[in-house]
Structures are given as C-alpha cells and as structure tokens.
Write a structure and sequence with these properties.
single chain, alpha/beta, 6-stranded antiparallel β-sheet
C-alpha cells in the first residue's frame, strides 16, 4: 500500500492498524496509558483524554438516529450550537453483524467521521443482548434460531423477547461481536481518541418478571450461591447495602446454600439472583472487549421499581460479579433528580449520567450544574436533544455555554472542596420544595432563596416562587472571592461560625470567560443587588456572577 496517496488523517489510522497487527499485545499495552482512561484526583474520579481531565457535556441520540448517516448529517450543527462536547450514540449489533462473522462498521465509521468533523467526542452504547430489557437489536440470525439462542421464560414456560443470560451460545455470540467492535475502534481511533467510553448493553433486566424462569435459570436458582459472591459479601459485610446485608445476616450468613436459603424467599432474592446472572454475563462481555481495547466501560440503569439493573441496592452484586465494569450509571427521567443522583454518587462508583429527560431544558441545565459541582460528576447528558423544541435547544445551549466556560475551574476543583452545587429538591410526583437552603464555603455562609425577592407579597400571602428552574453552583476563587452561576435564585451572605460578624457585598460583576480568561461586564449595584443586600441570578436563563465579600461587625 502506498501511504503517500492516503489523506493525512487516514494515514494515521492505517499506520495505527498496521502497528497493532505487527506488534500485537505489546502495542496495545503501550497505548493503554494514552487512550481515554479514568484517574482519581483529590478523591474525585475523572476521565482523562490526551493527558488532560475531561468533563462530558453531552446529549444522547434517540434510539434510531444513529442508524442513518444522512439523518445524522443534519443533527451535528444542532449539537455544536447547543455547546455539546460529546454525543452519546448507539452501535447496533443488528447492523454491524448482519451475517454471523461478517461485520459492517459503516454506521460506526460514519459516527466517528461526523464527530471529528464537528470537533466532538463520542460515547458509544452497545445495543447487544439488551436494550430496555428486550433483545430487539440482536441480528436476525439470532432472533430466528431459538434452539441455538434460547430466550428467558415466564413461570408458565412462555418465552420472552429476551435472550437468556444462562446460555453460553448467547454470551459467546454477543462477546464476539463486541470484541470485533472494540478491535475496530482500536484500529481506527486509538491514535485520535474520538471515542471516550463505551456503555455495555442498555438498561438490563427482566421485565415484568423479576427473573428468568427457564429450566437453566431454575436449576441455577436451586444450586448453591457461587462462592465468589458469598466471599465478596463476607469481605465487605461492613459496607453492604442495608437490605442485602439484613437478608444475608437474618438467614445465617450462609455459604454453600441455594439462593432462597441464603437470602430468604421473596422479590429481593429474585432480584439479587437476576442481578448476579446479568452482571456476570455483562461483565464477561466487558472484559472480553477490554482485552481488545481497554476504554472505560459502564452499565446504565432504568430506574423502574422492581425492574432494571443496576439499582442502588444491587451495587454490591455488580461489583462482585463484574469487576470489568467501571461504573454504574443512572438514567434519570423522574422529577426527583437530586435524590437519584445522590444515590449513585457514592464511594466506589464515579458518577456519570448518560440519560436525563422528561423535563424542560432549564431544569435539565440546573440538574447538570448540581451534578458537576456537588457530586463530582464526570459527565451529564440529555436524552434525544435532536427532538427538543427551538426554545429548549436555546436554553440548554445557554446552560451548556456557561458550563463550557466554567469547565477548567470545575475540573481543577473537583474533589478539593472549593465548590458547592445547589438544587431545589422535588418529589417523585414533581412537587418542588422551594424552601431556603444554607451552605458554607470557606469563611462564609450562602443563604439561597428560590422565592421572588421583589415586590413584597401582599399581607397574609406567601411570597411566590421565582418562575422557572432553580439551581446552580458556587465556586471559591480566594478567601473572599467567589463565582456564582446558575438560574432562578437569590443569595444572601453570612459569616460562618459567628453570631456577631456580618458579611457585606464588596462588589458583584457580571461577565464571562473568553478563552479561559475572565472578562467582566457591568458592576451590579443599587437596584441590581437590592442596595447591597443580595445577589440574584435571573430566572429563565443561565448567568455567571463574580462576587467579592467582606466582613464587618
């Protein structure tokens, strides 16, 4: 092959592929340190890309969008306009392996080319054995051969449109396709790093049942719980989830007994059994893929009561069964975003939110601010951004623009304790709690109100909430110097730990970061800070304010 006649970016890819073939595993190990990977800094886990920490600011394509490259062509400019730096996109087993052992990566290559042309990164979703708990993306040659590729079953013996995780044939076929994908990424992207991470499967689980009832599954349920699991439980008994710990202890912390005798009868045991089965299957696929190209890998969860894995109470099962999975990530479509995000941001599980939706763009933006600042999230993504209306695209773009400006500071301070996220909590039913919140940063307290500051309410009537979304972040730059960013809240200030000293506003400047440099705008005073009483972030848009405080008696 004459490399002189290949376009520059193509020659890099070809040389990378040739080196991989000639040097084999040694080449892969040498590249592993430079490809996207996870690293811990100040106790926070970050994804490192080309030697620098990276904050995923993204959108996840609707399920079918990545199946047509012409369809995608019109979407890239929208993503750029909304200030994405990453697109999360499916890879469909059905399309890349139309015939067993014959692979077609045209859709994958088109995704990578489109992302590069628009200066975006990708996170790829492997739609293999599961997609929303159903095997709808497996190839036709798998779907049509139930004898070779058996299905999960209901208690009455009827089959489900879900591949059984107890079948070695199912695991082998899925693993082979996933390994082929990862080898292709190694050959085409290991020098350029467009693809950052891979999600293995999608919203795994058995719905509406809590587990598979096929003969193979029933035999496994009645067999002894694997020693790998009971050994993990024994080694981590002090940190197990409360329900799992209680069930195991109440039944004698047994080893060598079947699932029902180990954890007791009931839905919890079915869920633990099913989670172990699915985690072993998915973890084996992830491990096989990493042997080809070790990108970070995660599993996402449908937050459906009684179904979908991995839910927070099952983290221990996944950690024991699937060590190749780097993190367990929530898809949050409920109003109680804060409660779910908090449950996934726990020690040993870096927070990455691949899907968030069913809310207006202002709310999604406020959620992102909270996740990045308060929970050290390495990424936040809105689902189906191509379907947002024009107003929501504009609002989300404004939120992401502010986050883009703040990204270097967010990354520099993750885990260091110099920033706080603020978000109004909501119930599952969507009832927001606009009550005041007080947080402490450095020597000052910040009192956040989400009620309208002016004009005063009529006597006997409560002050109405500020319209729109409410939330943001506070980041400390110096002893008295802070950045405040977000939407829909009013901040007043106090001195931490002092009943007598008071905090005053020295100055408030609006402004923005241009090429990483703070560029101040107006000095806000008088009516704009209620004569030195508060800092207000306007509703309906996202803004940055730089405030300098001082103390007095």
């Amino acid at each position: 092959m004459n490399f002189m006649h290949i376009a520059p970016h193509r020659s890099i890819l070809v040389l990378s592929a040739v080196a991989a073939l000639l040097l084999g595993p040694r080449f892969v190990r040498a590249q592993a340190a430079s490809i996207p990977h996870l690293a811990v800094r100040h106790g926070a886990t970050q994804i490192v890309v080309d030697g620098k920490p990276f904050l995923v600011r993204g959108g996840e394509l609707e399920n079918s969008s990545a199946s047509s490259l012409p369809y995608l062509h019109n979407l890239w400019p929208k993503f750029v306009a909304m200030h994405f730096n990453t697109v999360i996109a499916p890879v469909y087993w059905q399309l890349i392996e139309p015939r067993e052992g014959h692979f077609d990566f045209a859709t994958v290559d088109g995704l990578i080319h489109g992302a590069r042309a628009n200066h975006l990164h990708l996170v790829l979703l492997w739609f293999g054995s599961w997609k929303n708990s159903v095997s709808c993306y497996v190839p036709d040659w798998v779907k049509e051969n139930e004898q070779r590729f058996p299905r999960a079953e209901l208690p009455d013996g009827r089959g489900l449109e879900i591949l059984s995780a107890f079948s070695p044939n199912n695991l082998d076929a899925d693993s082979a396709a996933f390994v082929a994908l990862m080898k292709h990424l190694r050959a085409t992207d290991s020098s350029i790093h467009t693809v950052l991470m891979v999600q293995v499967e999608n919203e795994i689980g058995i719905i509406p049942q809590s587990r598979d009832y096929s003969p193979a599954a029933n035999a496994a349920f009645n067999a002894p719980v694997p020693a790998a699991l009971t050994s993990y439980l024994a080694a981590h008994r002090g940190t197990l989830s409360p329900d799992l710990s209680k069930a195991w202890k109440e039944h004698g912390s047994k080893t060598g007994a079947n699932w029902r005798d180990t954890f007791g009868p009931g839905p919890l045991t079915d869920n633990v059994f099913d989670a172990w089965t699915e985690a072993r299957y998915t973890g084996a696929i992830a491990a096989a893929g990493k042997s080809a190209y070790p990108l970070p890998m995660y599993v996402n969860a449908a937050l459906i009561p009684g179904g979908g894995r991995p839910l927070p109470g099952l983290f221990d099962i996944w950690h024991a069964a699937a060590p190749a999975i780097d993190m367990l990530s929530p898809d949050i479509y409920f109003p109680d975003f804060k409660q779910w995000a908090d449950r996934y941001a726990v020690p040993g599980n870096p927070l990455f939110i691949p899907e968030s939706g069913r809310a207006d763009a202002g709310t999604l933006g406020a959620d992102a601010f909270y996740a990045y600042a308060q929970l050290n999230a390495m990424g936040f993504s809105v689902y189906a951004p191509e379907n947002l209306n024009a107003d929501d695209q504009k609002t989300l773009g404004q939120a992401y623009s502010v986050l883009d400006q703040l990204t270097p500071l967010i990354l520099a301070h993750q885990g260091a304790g110099h920033r706080i996220g603020i978000l109004t909590p909501s119930t599952f039913a969507g009832k927001e709690n606009p009550g005041p919140q007080t947080v402490t940063l450095g020597a000052y307290t910040f009192n956040a109100s989400f009620l309208r500051g002016w004009p005063p309410a009529a006597p006997g009537h409560p002050q109405p909430p500020i319209p729109g979304a409410h939330g943001g972040l506070i980041l400390q730059l110096g002893p008295n110097d802070f950045l405040v960013a977000g939407t829909g809240m009013i901040l007043t200030f106090g001195v931490s730990g002092s009943a007598h000293a008071q905090a005053g506003i020295d100055s408030i400047r609006e402004g923005k970061f241009v090429n990483g440099v703070w560029t101040p705008g107006r000095n806000l005073n008088g009516d704009d800070d209620n004569q030195g009483r508060w800092l207000e972030l306007p509703s309906g848009k996202f803004a940055i304010r730089r405030v300098t405080l001082y103390r007095y008696k």
